[in-house]
Amino acid sequence: MKIYYLSATGNSLAAARSLARELDEDVTLVSFRSIRLLPEIETEDTAVGFIFPVYFADVPREFLACIRKMKFRQKTYLFAIATCNGVPGTTLRTLSGALEQKGAHLSAAFSLDMPGNALITPQATSDKRLNEFPGRLSQIARMIAHREQTSFPGIPVREALRSAAVRAIGPRFVVNPRKFHTVETACVGCGLCARVCPASNIIISNNRPRWDSNCIHCLACFHWCPKQAIHIGGLLSDRPRYHHPEVSLSDLC
Ligand SMILES: Cc1cc2nc3c(=O)[nH]c(=O)nc-3n(C[C@H](O)[C@H](O)[C@H](O)COP(=O)(O)O)c2cc1C
Ligand code: SF4
Ligand code: SF4
């Protein structure tokens, strides 16, 4: 089995690792950063999973672009886990539709509530989600081990409209890479932000980061800067930094 994952603050990587541990089969984890520039991604595996965060009530655009480049064997069991902060929106539908367009079928798909890395999750809710995580993962693992199918209930019109609004507003007003900047006195020029960026979008020049134009909005740079020197403006400026307790910086670089 192959699991393709994208993770900035570790929630999705923790889910991918836990799943791999629970399954009684060979599982290879493949990161977004290692495949993002490949012209074509071919897989011979009979089961393939996608584990990624929800961005703006949908699949991260660049992760979806990778999935569009994939070629699967006929009858491959395809599954997905979208980690999110309680609002998966149209994510699983989008993924299912994209795979159908390729003649493939998403057999099982789950959304998994985790602590949010964009909007703040109240501490009690974060703790509850982290406590429930192992049990929920075991449940999902059992279904995947048995190659079970899940159904895709239709998205109510109100939810679809809400997702569309989040997509329209979020990239401009909530996470807008053009507003990223460092506090000059706090930044020590260590370059960790550039190393952790899964899209190689940060260039260190004169010991300071400069953001290029290929940002995927993941917020890894913001959360992992050891000096909390990166600020992103707007709604999220003052939010505390977060990463999944079982994931460290070196797991993502
Ligand atoms: C740019 C951005 C947009 C997000 N949009 C949503 C969203 O629409 N709905 C939601 O429930 N969570 C949203 N989140 C929260 C993440 O999906 C969630 O925290 C995820 O588990 C992070 O995964 P990671 O730790 O593997 O990076 C967003 C996060 C980011 C960075
Ligand atoms: S990780 Fe933080 S301190 Fe290090 S170079 Fe980037 S902004 Fe500066
Ligand atoms: S610049 Fe920051 S937010 Fe943008 S892709 Fe890189 S790490 Fe993620």
UniProtKB/TrEMBL annotation:
GO MF entries: iron-sulfur cluster binding; metal ion binding
Question: In the UniProt record, does the keyword Metal-binding occur?
Answer: yes
Task: Please report the stretch or stretches of sequence annotated as the 4Fe-4S ferredoxin-type domain.
Answer: 178-207, 208-235
Keywords tagged on the record: Iron, Iron-sulfur, Metal-binding
UniProt superkingdom: Bacteria
> What protein name applies here?
4Fe-4S dicluster domain-containing protein
